[in-house]
Write a structure and sequence with these properties.
The protein has 352 residues and is α/β, with parallel strands linked by helices. It is 24% helix and 20% strand. The chain has helices spanning 94-101, 150-157, 181-195, 217-223, 247-263, 296-303, 310-322, 325-332, and strands spanning 17-21, 26-30, 74-78, 84-88, 119-126, 129-135, 162-168, 204-209, 227-228, 234-235, 237-238, 282-285, 291-294, 339-342, 345-348. A hairpin with a 2-residue loop joins strand 14 (339-342) and strand 15. Residues 263-351 form the OCT domain.
Length: 352
Amino acid sequence: MHGAGADDLIVYVPEGTVVHDLEGTMLADLVHQGDRWMAAAGGRGGKGNARFLSNIRRAPSFAEQGEVGEEQWLNLELKLMADVALVGFPSVGKSTLISRISAAKPKIADYPFTTLEPNLGVVRVEENFEFVVADLPGLIEGASDGRGLGHRFLRHVERARVLVLMVDLAGGLDGMTVETPSEQAAVLLAELGAYRPELLDRPRIIIGSRADLVPGALAIAETGEPSTTDDGLELDLTISAVTGAGLQRLIGKMAEEVRGARSVEPELDGFVVHRPIAEGIRIEREDDGAYRVIGRAAERAVALSDLTNLEALDFAHSRLKKIGVDKALARAGATEGDTVRIGSLSFEYEEE
């Protein structure tokens, strides 16, 4: 952290971390293992006194100070990196499902919003092929406007390659769930589209869950075939996470969609690349009448100078004159005796 040979300070973050400034502008999207982004550059070290030898200055008694490093406040947001996201109302059986198809151990209970944070589970299909499933907090109507867990839920869906929409064939445990399967699917799709319209273009699988609680549904689940609910919703599959009916067919369907999605990676959202631009000298008048000199070159000349050393001050003044500070002050109307400030340095203006 200090000195010419100091090591970089490296902060490790999970894959899927998005970096924003305090105004909300995205600065970096760290998606892959090994991605790096420089948040703040360290200050350049100062030159030693030997660097200021000249025919006029035979024994310089001053050296440059090191530059102060950059600093900035940042907001870090994690968007989960999952191949498959389980999307559904509270108590639709998402946690039970992920516990049956992976080694994940989510909290499972018969009341809504049991899942308050996403759970990830790895599903291994073959020795050399596996994918990650995210069990996300329950979605409710109005989530795209922030209701319930709102955007905390929806931001994690953005990364998923495949969406599995789960509708509760039994009508829900809590009375909050929209009553019919087709109504549930309509609300889920509406909320996803309101949050990010492109989510509606993702591969999706619509499944009916909790078939063990609905007469005749369990037999359909065991066939592993598509079906249509009484209210006209077309289901890709019907399952019971409790009995296991339909789960192997669901895993196969997920794997098929994940393989296809991985072969065509979507382009990442762009983000702003900040590049330094050439900056001249600007003079501003402060409330007390002093002249403030603004410009990286001028401020840097002062920051690198030892302000307690007269020879260093003289050298700093020659630098400032060379980059045009004296002329800029004269154009701004500065007169003999006016106060001038550059960085932490304050002095009286002298006309030449």
